[in-house]
TrEMBL record:
Coiled coil: none annotated. The keyword tRNA processing applies. It comes from the Eukaryota. GO terms for cellular component: endoribonuclease complex; ribonucleoprotein complex. This is RPP21 isoform 1. Keywords: Metal-binding, tRNA processing, Zinc. Gene3D superfamilies: 6.20.50.20. Belongs to the eukaryotic/archaeal RNase P protein component 4 family. GO terms for molecular function: metal ion binding. Residues 141-150 have a biased composition (Basic and acidic residues). One of its GO terms (biological process) is tRNA processing. It holds the Pfam family Rpr2.
Length: 158
């Protein structure tokens, strides 16, 4: 039982360091040394972890920090980001402005987000019923009154 608690604490520490590095750069873009320290500490903690789930992936991934100097890579602030073509493939190239190290990430033009896929759309599902319009609930108060009350109100207004 001690394992999951330790892993959760380590993940919280990694998450805190990641958020702290972003907050430091958001408040003062000139304070890149402190953000670099947070990213370096995050990387050393992640290297010590043996659990696959806690290694940096996705939003806490290695594409967010430079492998050379541990700077947090924010396009336009601490790195440049360019789209390149090489041998018929599309690549995103990030170049760190501190140490000039570049990283390449393959772009897949055929990749579709889940929301854009046909099976994610409600109308294209085979077992779904066509959507019925909602009944109009925006009636005036006089529409809900019985006819005899409406007649008495009409005669009292005259």
């Amino acid at each position: 039982m001690a394992g999951p608690v330790k892993d959760r604490e380590a993940f919280q520490r990694l998450n805190f360091l990641y958020q702290a590095a972003h907050c430091v750069l958001a408040q003062d873009p000139e304070n890149q040394a402190l953000a670099r320290f947070y990213c370096y500490t995050e990387r050393t903690i992640a290297k010590r972890l043996t659990t696959i789930l806690l290694r940096p992936q996705g939003s806490l991934g290695e594409e967010d920090s430079c492998r050379g100097c541990s700077s947090l890579l924010v396009p336009g602030l601490t790195c440049t980001q360019r789209q390149r073509r090489c041998r018929g493939q599309r690549w995103t190239v990030q170049t760190c402005l501190t140490c000039q190290r570049s990283q390449r990430f393959l772009n897949d033009p055929g990749h579709l987000l889940w929301g854009d896929r046909p099976e994610a759309q409600l109308g294209s599902q085979a077992d779904s019923k066509p959507l019925q319009p909602l009944p109009n609930t925006a009636h005036s108060i006089s529409d809900r009154l019985p006819e005899e009350k409406m007649q008495t109100q009409g005669s009292s207004n005259q």
